[in-house]
Amino acid sequence: xxxxxxxxxxxxxxxxxxxxxxxxxxxxxxxxxxxxxxxxxxxxxxxxxxxxxxxxxxxxxxxxxxxxxxxxxxxxxxxxxxxxxxxxxxxxxxxxxxxxxxxxxxxxxxxxxxxxxxxxxxxxxxxxxxxxxxxxxxxxxxxxxxxxxxxxxxxxxxxxxxxxxxxxxxxxxxxxxxxxxxxx
Length: 184
Hints:
By secondary structure, the protein is α+β, with helices and mostly antiparallel strands. 23% of the residues lie in helices and 28% in strands. The protein has four helices and nine strands; from the N terminus they run βαβββββββαααβ. Strands 2-3-4-7-8 form a five-stranded antiparallel β-sheet, sandwiched between helices. 35% of the residues are buried.
């Protein structure tokens, strides 16, 4: 099943998501549907708040960006109950976009190396270090489960400059080829 993507202005995108356990209702089906939704929307990652669920879950598949970023060649993972426990001080700037903010791409500064603890789709624990663009993608999706968006990393001036685009998103004035869920 392909979920509609929750877009800017929806309250769930600003909620701190909750941990889940293996008994969470239909969790494996939700994960399967998230993969399908992400692929049908041409995304690289998708977090549960983007489908309306305030739970600590996101999926990432970086293979489509592997030509430009070789470290993404085999980077496909489900992250549940993730906690970033270390970020280095070396910041890198690059452009980001988001399925929940269609039509907006902005340059964002993020640490280029992180350490993250999480459980996978089988609820096996992991403690891993990621660098480069893989670290960027994880941090972008992690922001979603923390109730943040990539635009929160922009300067006040940049935020003012995209305000009309953000307002257009809230009323569905976007040109995209995937289903969205507008704010109520």
